[in-house]
Amino acid sequence: MPAPKRPIAIPRHLGCLVKMLFGFALLLLMGYFALIALNPKAREWATSGAKDGSGGPTPFNAVNQVLAIPAQAIGKTKDVVAAGDARAGVLDGVIAEEEGKKKKKGAADTHVVTDPFAASSAPAGAGVSKARAAAAADTAGAGGPAEQGVSRSALLAMHEKMGELPDPSDPAARPDPVAPPPPPDPPAPAQVKLAGGIVIASASPADGPVVRTSFFYWIVKQNITGVFQSPPHRIMLNGQLVYEGTEINRAQGITFDHLDPAKKVIVFRDNTGALVTRSY
Length: 280
Prior knowledge:
With 280 residues, the chain is α+β, with helices and mostly antiparallel strands. It has helices at residues 14-38, 40-47, 61-67, 69-109, 126-142, 152-163, 213-221; strands spanning 191-193, 199-202, 224-228, 234-237, 240-243, 247-249, 254-260, 265-269, 275-279. A hairpin with a 4-residue loop joins β7 and β8. α1 packs across α2 and α5 (126-142) packs antiparallel against α6 (152-163). The longest helix has 41 residues, at 69-109. The relative contact order is 0.06. Mean pLDDT is 74; it is low at 56-60, 121-126 and 142-148.
């Protein structure tokens, strides 16, 4: 029988050697990336080159371009940040220039406040005159002209002058509101006949008060269902028993004045003294 083949013996240190070579290659790549990222000249060398591959010492320029991608990204990020800083600087300069213009314009627009009480010669009361004199004295003591500003005494004088005026918030100082006059009430008709032979008529004398239309037609609208002629005289008005002399409409001052059994009429009076009769 043929003898079995022996397995090929692998040196023990071969695996360690492979690991060392792999680690060494990894360190070289990391160093290459760091060099391109930190050194602008190395980054320019790695990314430049002609189309024929003669731009650098590496034999394959395409591989060099791939290896330089992280460095290109870092370089572009720095360029973007630098461009942003430059735009921010320009914007800050424009804002500072505009603020300077506004400050100059504000300084040019300011004017000197004059004292309205320093040059006045018309007397407005003893208190005001004393305050004005004190204001002039304060201004003279300060050594400056009166046109430089309103002094404290002048403000006190103005406050004293304003104190003589009535306070608009005081109810006593406000004028009483004038109520508009009521619209004229047209004269009432002489008489109105209702169903059942009921007659409502104006009974005021010729020289007496005029019967108002509202008073007259209020009597027309009432429902009187009973009249009691025995004293005391009473009527059944809108389902309620009303005695003679009772006020039946407080708003218009209408009163059941009296009953006239001889003429068979009910007499009503309002607060002006006008009379309206209603037959029954």
